[in-house]
Amino acid sequence: MNIMNNNNYNGPNDLYPVSMEMPKLAHAYVPFQYLSCLYTPEVGLKRGTIFPELDRPYGVDPEYTVDA
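== Spore coat protein CotJA ==
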C-alpha cells in the first residue's frame, strides 16, 4: 500500500491532542486533524479518499460488516 509519510507517523494517537476535559453540553466539538500521512493521488482515486484514517472499504472491516 502506498502511503506518503511526511514524518515518523506511528498512528493517529501520535498526532491528536487529548480531548477536551469538560466540553459544554450541546456545543459542537471537532478534534484537531493533521495532514501527516496521505495516499498518493493514484491510490486515493482508487480508494475514494486520500486520508488513510478515513479509508473503510465495505465488507473488509469487521466493525462495519453486518452479520446476516
